[in-house]
Design a protein that fits this description.
Layout (H helix, E strand, L loop, with lengths): L1 E4 L4 E4 L7 E4 L2 E2 L1 E4 L6 H18 L5 E2 L8 E5 L3 H5 L12 E6 L2 E5 L17 H15 L14 E2 L4 E2 L5 H12 L3 E2 L7 E2 L6 E2 L4 E4 L5 E6 L8 H9 L6 H4 L9 H4 L2 H6 L6 E2 L2 E2 L14 H18 L3 E3 L31 H18 L4 E4 L19 E5 L9 H17 L5 E9 L14 H11 L3 E10 L11 H16 L5 H13 L3 H18 L3 H17 L5 H12 L2 H10 L7 E3 L1 E2 L16 H4 L3 E2 L1 E2 L12 E7 L3 E9 L23 E7 L4 E7 L5 E5 L13 E6 L3 E9 L5 H4 L16 E11 L2 E6 L15 E4 L2
Parallel strand pairs: 5-6, 5-7, 7-9, 16-23, 19-20, 20-21, 21-22, 22-23, 24-37, 25-28
Antiparallel strand pairs: 1-2, 3-4, 3-14, 8-9, 8-15, 10-11, 12-13, 17-18, 26-28, 27-36, 28-29, 29-34, 30-31, 30-35, 31-32, 33-34, 35-36, 35-37
Helix pairs in contact: 1-4, 9-10, 12-13, 14-15, 15-16, 16-17, 16-18
Length: about 800
Amino acid sequence: MSVALGIAGITFSQTVSGEAFIVRDGKPMAEIIVADKPARMAKLAASELQTNLEKISGAKLTITNLPGKDVPIKIYVGKSKYTDELKLSTEGLAHGAFRMISGDGWLALLGPDKDYVPIEPWGRSRESAEVERINHEWDKITGDTFYNPFHSLFMYYDSGLDIWAFDDRGTLHAVYEYLHGLGVRWYMPGDLGEIVPKQTTLILPAVDKTARPDFAVRKLVWFKSFLPVSRADALWRLRLCLDEGYDVVGITQNCHGMKYVHRRKEMKEAHPEYYAVWNGKRATDHKDSGAPCLSSQALFDLHIKYARAVFDHFGEPMLSIDPVDGYSAGLCECELCRGKGTPGRGAEGAMSDYVWGYMNRVAAELYKSHPDRFVSGIPYGTYRLPPEKIDKFSPNMVIRVSPRRMNYYDTEQRSEFDRLLKAWLEKLPSKKVFIADNIFFNWPSTSQAYLPVYYPRSVAGSLRDLKGISLGESLECYEHTPDAGFKWDPQAVAHLTLYITSRFWWDTTQDLDAMLNEYYRLFYGPAEKEMKAFIEYSEQNWPEMGKDPVRISKALELLEKAQKAADPESVYGRRIHVVVEYVKPMYDLKEQLGRKRENVPRYRLHPAPTLASKKLDGRIDDEKYWRETNADLRDLETAKYPPKGQETRFRVLWADKALCLGIRCSEPDMKNLNCGQAEKGAAGIREGDFVEILLETSTHSYYRITVSPAGMIEDADCHDGTNEKWNSLAQAAVHKGDNFWSAEIRIPLAGEGARILNPDAGVDGRKPGITYPWYFNVCRQRVRGGTIQRFAFSPTGTNTFEAPAKFAEMWST
């Protein structure tokens, strides 16, 4: 009999001729040997081997550090004096790599097992007194008021299993792969996700293999809880053979790391000049950390001081130096930063030279003192594109970039990432790239909520492409607590993508189809074919299900067939049931989508590339592209055309990832133009004259962007209530004539899924198309005395603009 191990391509060649049995007819013929003082993970590995061999065979093997003379087979778990006597070395193994080797009467499962020892000062809890304590200890070391980046280290210790996330795991991985070779699978946390074949006889395998992962860093980071919430969950994550890669990327937060320089209250109070000016005020409270002014030389010097202290005291191999999360909200408005943006590069490049210019300066300075250490930055938001003014980065620079793998169903998005990565690599002498991505489990604010989101083929293809390029990956897992009335398991659907990801992190040459077919057979039994049909259909169609009742109906029909194919009380039926519970809201969604939109106009979007970099001035009468095929607004309630002299015409164009509008408002009473309540700022402009754009993109419904005759912008995300903190990143300019006022408005597209990375900034969606149109309305309000007039491109028949069922359709070829 032979059994293949997926990670290492290992095959057990087992024969009964030598009668070398680990278990025979349900009786133990072997014992598990560990060191006198085994490392934490080696101790856990021995326990896991004992537990699972008993599940398989019914036989419980003894764990001991003193081999018995009467026990014929020895299984050495981890390094010990016995493996030393056999001259079994783990030299050169790293990142969870392991050896599996057998000989006459013995099997050794071993790899590096060094116990992690935290360096003081580090945080033991979230208590404010504890944070204050470690910050003050850090102050003594640095001579300044930096935030201690190890404040949350306690979150990486599991007291139930007595292990640190940073303990070496080589031996544990060897044990799991040995069990995998026996047919054990852990597809989901807990007993329901476990496959344990029953074999009363287990033969000593003939094996001599070393397994090394294709990617050094293999992290799953749960957004809501860094620590697993149960023992079953903790063990499942270990059984996926992950690795924190702290010897590669370090332990401190590997993104937005600059915040620890300026996060403290003491720093904010002493040096408000270190913080960006947004809307005329210092952004000291942004994301609790404050947003930095990257033109401040004093702050730059402090950043260098902080980084050197972290390198010297904590010994970090790499340090994140990029700005705080949400920094894409806008360029600092201070005199030193003025003109440093590149708005002509669109939503993904407007701040690239500004942000990366700063980070490269930090990297170059640190390279002088610590040439053996690395710093990392993330292409993110308005600085996702490579800078134009830097030909080559400092040799110590690493980028942490997201491929947005969930969107790879769109081949253009995948090609776009390939082009982006190539452009970055051309500027990176280090050629070091670290991948960060996301996976969402039923998070209501995403368009994927409740949908059967499977994408194992995208994962496998992407990882094959990145082998040899990427240092490894950190995958953020966004998990949502169930609403009342629904009892779903967040891993009901996502577990398959995570399982495939973890296996391909080790070996990208594996046969994906064989792995998937094995999953369908083992996990769903009699419903194998039906669940395969459901999952494969879902993988091809989930991106459209959120807006297509026909696709939802087909997916639910396939799932219902799978339900009928398996006894609901069986383990197979219960596994299908968790999927059924997960997708239950799709029935309501199907009904909602089945409601036809009311009779609304359609609008074809035309390209105008030159608008991407044009300086807006509001003068639409002077430009030919604004004058062609304009559309008119009509009375909001009656749909009648307005009185002569009060007409409103507009045109919408597409310019390199931005929606551009030119709107001309005829006005017979320009001297009494009502610009709203100026003392209320942007919040008051909706009390006077304004034009307004309502946008439902391919992935989000809906946004509101309002522009006053004074050129002020008020915007809001109206998806769930009215989020006025949201920033569209739109630009607007207004021109006033003798009997009209006109506006040019440029609204950049942040990209599909952008609201997950930053829910308070940017328009989420893909370019409007025939298959994926947008819905919109262009509106105008005119206020004179107590009289209010309202007009819209698609009249709603009511006194409100915000009627999504009446939004016009926008499409392009």
